[in-house]
Amino acid sequence: MPTVITAISSSETEGFIAGTLFTQGWSVVFRAIDWASLERFISANQDVARGALLLFASDLPGISKEKVNSIAPQLRQTIGFSTDKQQKSEFIDLYEVPQSVTDLVTLVRGFVRAPLLRGLNTPHRAPRKARVIAVGSAGSYTGCTMLAMNLAMELSILEKSTLLIEGNYRAPSIAAYLAMRNINSDAQWKSIAPHLSLVEINQDHAGEINDFMDRAAAEFECIIVDLGSISGLSNRLTDRRWTSTMTTWCCDQGDELMIVSRADQLGAHRLAQVVALLQNTSVRAGLSFVMNMKAPGKRGESEQAKFLSCTTPLKPIRVRSIAKDSRAVMAAEDEHATLVETNVRSNVRKAIANLARELES
């Protein structure tokens, strides 16, 4: 995680910015009270400064555009905020101080990932008609892909035009599940059922992810993204590699991040790790949780109690559980099909159909 230097006179603004970034795991190495103290610190700590982001404000005593430009080469990046309207005209690319933790963190992460791409609208989510739901896995073998694929199918049955996105760069699985090849042809996405299309994000898409998602949101009513594992989420959100672009977009611009966990002991352990990470990582997308493969009877009740105890502190927008139904899931896998195509009356299919109806309403 990058280190941070603040140079902001307003104690309220500086406290909000420094405190927020500190809680997100960032190291605030110096808090300048005037320009002279900032210059002294950079001069005496050149190695630290080269890897640091300078967050400055136009109210800092002694600051000027020329002075900021003169020290910029000694820093990793500079981000300016406007707190003094009389001095604002002297600078360019100044940002209004964000009003929420999420907007501040999103703005700063954007500079870390792409420091040359600036825009005053960066913190704001683009308006769109499509609802974007990203499905991520808290651990391994949680059924994340199964849920994403069947949720997309159930939405399409409800006559919602739906796009299913394979966004798991490290271990793409949807094409293997459905025994499909050449998902990405000349068309932007491939129609695989009435009201349902599929696309696999590759490095070419990742380079223009904002434009790609804008086009998708203009054509579809629902977009389901299979992200795969979201372990190490906080590091991915500042990662410049193309493999992190889909996760970053979903956390910054998506409507919902649905996290799937297993119901067993290892699944509960992995979920607790993800929850601890999310408590110190702000994302704009609403959080929801699904416990998959819940056991029957008293054991299942115990699993659900632990699940609710773990996830409730994050105030999720929805919490659901899906009972274990290995026979139905294996039958669908054997036939390379979705649950509604192989066992419409199975409990797992009914649970996902109910979730789709909830999302549709």
Q: Would you count the extended β strands for me? A: 13
Uncertain segments are 116-123
C-alpha geometry:
elongated
- Tally of individual helices: 17
Strand content: 15-25%
CATH names the topology of the largest domain as Rossmann fold
- Main sheet, how many strands, which sense, barrel? 8 strands, mixed
Helical amount: 40-55%
Q: CATH homologous superfamily of the largest domain, by name?
A: P-loop containing nucleotide triphosphate hydrolases
Order of helices and strands: EHEHHEHEHEHEHEHEEHHEHHEHEHEHHH
Q: What is the residue-averaged pLDDT?
A: 87
What structural class do you assign from the helix and strand content? alpha/beta
Looking across the biggest beta sheet, what order are the strands in? Answer: 8-9-7-10-6-11-12-13
Q: Any idea how many domains?
A: 2
CATH class of the largest domain: Alpha Beta
Which CATH architecture of the largest domain is right?
A: 3-Layer(aba) Sandwich
Rg estimate, integer Å: 23 Å
Amino-to-carboxy terminus distance: 40 Å
